[in-house]
Write a structure and sequence with these properties.
about 650 residues; alpha/beta; seven-stranded mixed sheet; six-stranded mixed sheet; about 20% strand; binds flavin-adenine dinucleotide
């Protein structure tokens, strides 16, 4: 029986696969179902690659390439290539070829629908499209889904290309400008490409490597400035694109019958954004395995080139101003043909060492250290609360006011630097989907709701505050530890609150008293050690059930900070565990840098500080009482935060 192959997404990678399958005469042996709602009628991309004229890719696409060049310029110098040529292929050419194959074979069917999900069950693989489900044997999935990058090593290549015609000869037709950095860098690394098809026509493209995308308006300003002096030009076409430059890849193989393809499979070289040649070779390898009637199993090897990509992306991301000097030094020191072979990962180690010796070595050493730090810092984070609690405990024996205020100062500073800001960025993602007015309205409604509860039935206000705190603490910790059980998260959150509050009931009573709660004396004098011990045991059992050493570290941190005071238990957990995790989750989900997050959160952080400071209005004279009112106000700003973070985690899963 014929096997059925589903091509999910009909872009470059799956089109290349279809062409290779035709070449290998597989379309009589397989039924192919293509899923893509896009008709692929527009020439929306220009695929460039370099190769030797004898290479198979050139033999295959030779007649279709729009233009080829053998001379490259940068703003440093111009040089001819020896055995390589640089080729330009318009996406419309590829689309036309692939569509011709679709129309030629009755075994190939194009279903113009979006794929909602791909399910593997006992009966095989099910492609769930918009209106119907299709049972297939194999799936080649090219839907792009950027991986959340834990260490933040995601950079984006964004670009705006103008295809223009000038009114007089202005371009050197046989030479491409690959990287011209002679333009403002705008806190990123940006340059111009010029691909002339005649002396009057060219594709001129502004490209930015950076964490922030370049928008069309900004890019147009640079393009216009760059084209000044080239005469009057007519805009023939425009191409805007974003290519993620991530060293992390979507897991390749969900199961043996479903494999990723194209960008989804990490075919885009992180440091350059080129993918076409690699996708072509990957499609050939895939077709070869399909001809043996086995699903595609991609063999990947980790190589030193991945490490080089990592170092360059670290530089471009954290020191964008270094991009220009690094590239300029590279172009002035090494022959262009050899640089292209290096980018194809075909250089020798000896050549690479020679190249690095000519680059700004201190900048790369910095990248090595930064890379080590980025890799290790996540391992250090779970130990942080315990370490800080131990320091507090040891220093508490000194019984010094200086120490106390120093420690409170450190926690207070962290509260301002990540505690409040992590709360201020919660709904940022949602804010992009609603107007600022709607967002603030929702926030205020929730704050109002909890305020009314505190005023009318304070005990319910307190209970609701405790319940949603338990929910939120549990949810954030579970997210951090890669656990997803909602009920387990809530139980853990209850344990966290119990471990935090129970050893300090007198302090809790002191905080609650000014806002009208009196914890009965009987309770305060009761012996809580037994219950506290039971909570510790329960939390330990949970850590064994979920096999998470980080849970044990948290319990130990609470046991130690309990010896110091309520402020230490709350402060250490809240800023060093909870807020730090939330901050990292937001940073990863949105691919922000810390600085970008502080900038974005600044007005909301200020709002949060003002709300907490408002507690002084009630008791300007008494710091202890202030804590009571601050707790009420904190609950008011926390409820919307918990709601928005829950939505964000829910959407993520
Ligand atoms: C503007 C641009 C220019 C580029 N230029 C070059 C270049 O010059 N050289 C080079 O080497 N690389 C280049 N690249 C990088 C890379 O080669 C391209 O991104 C290439 O198109 C990637 O192929 P792909 O199949 O992974 O994705 P795509 O070509 O984007 O195809 C993915 C397809 O999946 C479909 N799809 C998405 N979701 C669903 C769904 N749920 N259900 C069904 N279908 C879905 C989309 O409609 C799309 O047709 C460029 C990228 C861009 C964005």
């Amino acid at each position: 029986m014929k096997k059925v192959l589903g091509l999910v997404g009909f872009g470059a990678s799956n089109m290349l696969l279809l062409l290779e399958m035709e070449k290998a005469k597989l379309l009589g042996r397989y039924d192919v179902l293509i899923f893509d709602e896009c008709a692929k009628e527009k020439n929306d991309k220009t695929y460039c690659f370099w190769a030797s004229p004898n290479d198979d890719i050139v033999q295959d696409f030779g007649s279709a390439v729009k233009k080829e060049w053998q001379r490259i310029s940068t703003n440093v110098r111009s040089e001819g290539l020896n055995s390589l040529k640089y080729y330009m292929l318009e996406s419309s050419t590829l689309y036309t070829r692939a569509k011709m194959v679709v129309s030629k074979y009755s075994s190939v069917r194009w279903i113009r629908q979006r794929v909602e999900s791909i399910d593997k069950n006992a009966r095989g693989v099910l492609i769930c499209a918009e209106s119907t489900d299709f049972k297939v044997d194999y799936v080649s999935d090219s839907r792009f889904s950027p991986m959340p990058v834990e260490d933040g090593l995601l950079l984006k290549q964004s670009f705006l290309g103008w295809k223009i015609r000038v009114d007089r000869p202005a371009f050197t037709e046989d030479t491409i400008m690959l990287m011209d950095f002679d333009l403002p860098q705008d806190e990123s690394t940006q340059f111009m490409y010029v691909l002339p098809t005649t002396s009057e026509e060219a594709l001129v493209e502004l490209t930015r490597f950076g964490t922030e995308l370049i928008d069309r308006e900004q890019a147009s300003i640079h393009l216009k400035a760059y084209l000044k002096g080239k005469g009057t030009f007519k805009l023939l076409d425009e191409e805007y694109g974003i290519i993620p430059m991530s060293i992390q890849q979507t897991p390749d193989q969900d199961n043996p019958s479903v494999w990723s393809m194209g960008s989804r499979a990490g075919m885009v070289k992180p440091s350059t954004g080129y993918a076409f040649r690699k996708m072509y070779e990957d499609a050939r390898a895939c077709a070869a395995q399909l001809s043996a009637e086995v699903p595609y199993l991609r063999v990947r090897s980790t190589s030193r080139f991945q490490y080089y990509d990592r170092l360059l992306i670290t530089i471009l991301k954290y020191r964008p101003k270094w991009g220009r000097p690094v590239f300029e030094r590279l172009f002035s020191a090494m022959p262009y043909e050899q640089i292209l072979l290096f980018l194809d990962e075909k250089s020798t180690l000896g050549w690479e060492l020679r190249m690095f010796s000519k680059l700004p070595i201190l900048k790369f050493l910095w990248a090595v250290v930064m890379d080590l730090y980025l890799k290790r810092k996540n391992q250090f984070t779970p130990v942080l609360p315990l370490l800080f609690s131990l320091v507090l405990w040891v220093f508490s024996f000194l019984d010094s006011a200086l120490f106390m205020w120093g420690a409170v100062g450190v926690l207070g500073l962290l509260f301002l630097v990540i505690g409040i800001p992590h709360g201020a960025l919660d709904g940022f993602d949602l804010r992009r989907r609603m107007s600022m007015g709607q967002f603030i309205f929702k926030y205020l409604i929730m704050m109002f709701f909890i305020a009314i509860l505190w005023l009318v039935v304070p005990i319910v206000g307190l209970a609701v505050f405790l319940l949603f705190s338990a929910w939120h603490f549990g949810q954030t910790d579970f997210e951090e530890w890669g656990l997803s059980r909602a009920s387990g998260a809530f139980v853990w959150g209850v344990n966290v609150l119990a471990l935090m509050l129970m050893p300090h009931l007198n302090d809790v009573a002191a905080v609650l008293r000014p806002i009208g709660f009196d914890i009965p004396e009987l309770w305060l004098h009761a012996s809580w050690e037994g219950i506290w011990f039971a909570t510790i045991v329960a939390a330990f059992i949970q850590s064994i059930v979920y096999r998470r050493p980080a849970m044990v570290l948290t319990i130990m941190a609470f046991c130690v900070s309990a010896q110091v005071g309520l402020w230490a238990s709350f402060g250490v957990y809240f800023v060093m565990q909870h807020s730090l995790s939330g901050w990292r989750h937001l940073r990863t989900a949105n691919q922000w840098t810390n600085v970008a997050m502080w900038k974005k959160s600044a007005p909301f952080t200020l709002g949060g500080v003002l709300v907490l400071a408002a507690a002084f209005v009630f008791r300007p004279d008494d710091l202890r009482s202030w804590f009571g009112y601050a707790a009420v106000l904190l609950s008011m700003i926390s409820l919307p935060h918990v709601y928005f973070m829950s939505l964000a985690y829910f959407r993520k899963h």
